[in-house]
Amino acid sequence: MSNIAVLTSGGDSPGMNAAVMAVARNAAYYGMSLIGIKRGYNGLLGRAEKPADDFIRLDLDTVLDIADLPGTWLRTARCREFLDPAMREKAARTLKELDVSGLVVIGGDGSFQGAMRLCELGIPCIGIPGTIDNDLAYTEMTLGYDTAVNVCTDAVRAIRATSRSHDRPHVVEVMGRDCGDIALSTAAATGAEIVVVPEVKWKVDDVAAQLNRQIAMGNTRATVVVAEGCWKTMAPFDVYKFLLPYGKEVYPNEPMTANRFASVLKRKCGMIEARSTVIGYTQRGCSPTARDSIFAFEAGAMAVQLLKSGVSNQVIGMKHGRTFSMPIEKALAEKHHFNRKLYNLINSL
């Protein structure tokens, strides 16, 4: 195997660049040339106007200094066209024309699905889990998750300081898509009093009751950490009907948001001055923590070694602090285990 390629796909996550650098260093060590594919699977489909905007030869001089950079140097994009078998066949032909004999895919579950389909078309692929959501059940951590939690922890600590100064409860929304791990870890790390996640069905009135209990105990600046996907598992609540008498700007059928949730809690908890913050893309746009960088380094090395050994259709993960690999299909079939014990502990104190 003398010519391999690497791409980053799906949402960007801290550590993707470190993984690309690790792949490049190990490829150079084994005498392999490396092609970087830009903007995920879109690059394989030739979506750019110029071929130079889809592919780039990666050498050590190119990538040695990108490991600490946030985002993904190769760019990324979602590619719905890749769901079409004809488009996947086109991508496989492109790789064969480039004389690529192995591909490293850095991304989440959708990216791994694409890698598995390319394997079926004769393209050896290895996956590295790059997503802040930590929603791949086969691995203890995904690349970028630790950084996202640290960013959220720093933000909530700062928010709690000013909440304490003004005796104001605060609703903080963090990312994670349909997985509540970032919210749960952030709440535990900061001493937040309430956490709301998509894995557990919940009611607005129950959270208001929890907050009222905190206020009754003398805690007038409690923090409510909510995962961005939690609004999908919220019991029906007519935010328009509730806030309309207060003259709040909201229209029928508009969804609940962190800001509106804070407004609802304000009025359900004795007109407290509740505030809200959505941490947003800062979770994805920071330099990786040491833990994420180490994982990226080990995963990039293992990916190249697996391809060199003729192993394909595998993803790399972390278990008991050690990197390992397993078949993509088996990895994607595993179910996420939510830490209900920690969730109950946070919400019961």
Describe the SSE topology.
Layout (H helix, E strand, L loop, with lengths): L2 E6 L7 H14 L3 E5 L3 H4 L10 E4 L1 H4 L21 H13 L4 E6 L1 H12 L4 E5 L15 H22 L3 E5 L6 H10 L3 E3 L7 H13 L6 E5 L11 H5 L14 H11 L6 E4 L11 H19 L5 E6 L2 E6 H6 L6 H9 L1
Parallel strand pairs: 1-2, 1-4, 4-5, 5-10, 6-8, 6-9, 7-8
Antiparallel strand pairs: 2-3, 10-11
Helix pairs in contact: 1-11, 6-7, 8-10
Give the radius of gyration.
Answer: 23 Å
What is the total tally of β strands?
11
Order of strands, widest sheet: 3-2-1-4-5-10-11
Shape: elongated
| Strand proportion | 15-25%
Measured as a percent range, the helix fraction is 40-55%
- Order of helical and strand elements: EHEHEHHEHEHEHEHEHHEHEEHH
Largest sheet: 7 strands, mixed
Q: How many DSSP helices? A: 13
Briefly note the structural class of the backbone: alpha/beta
- The overall average pLDDT, rounded, is 95
First-last Cα distance: 57 Å
Low-confidence stretches: none
